[in-house]
Amino acid sequence: MSENRNEKDCCFIGHRAVANAEETRKLLYREILKLIKSESVRTFLFGSRSEFNELCHAVVTDLQIVYPDIKRVMYSCRSECACMESEREKTNSLYSRLLNRPIKLLGYEEERKFPYYLTSGRASYVQRNKSMIDDSDYCIFYYCDGYTPKSGGRSGTRMAYEYAEKVQRKGSNFKIINVYRPIDCL
What we know:
This protein has 186 residues and is an alpha/beta fold. It is 37% helix and 19% strand. The protein has a six-stranded parallel β-sheet, sandwiched between helices. Strands 4-5 form a two-stranded parallel ribbon. Helix 5 (156-169) links the parallel strand 7 and strand 8 (175-178). The chain is globular, with a radius of gyration of 16 Å. The relative contact order is 0.20. The model has no long low-confidence stretch (mean pLDDT 84).
């Protein structure tokens, strides 16, 4: 959570694919703007590797134009790293030349490593998501209760949502906001 207790933090967790991206983007914009204006949220925590994460990042980045004091923080897993906003253009150019195609990396003001960063295994994102929830006052989810991953097994988003519900029930001030709508049908 934010060091300045007047300011709050919000994380984002959702399924990899988003069925109705434009409608979800509108819902995200409305919810994030409400958190900035009414709830003093100034720090936004991001995971990685999902269309939902990219939508959230785009909305927060757009809102930085009007609210330059908000910041984007990436919670990375071992095989990931954040591209700092101050280096983004240079890094985009370098990777674009190396790969011989245009590259657009997401920019962040800060990168944080969760407590089990070095010791977590293959599904390190599960621990990462729990840390993001623990470090937040709000979590905006894109979570469908009926979703099953194509690979079978258990959805990481489901695990995070169930954990967030436990945190919320413990009487903390933590709140869940789910922008998934049943009409989205994954």
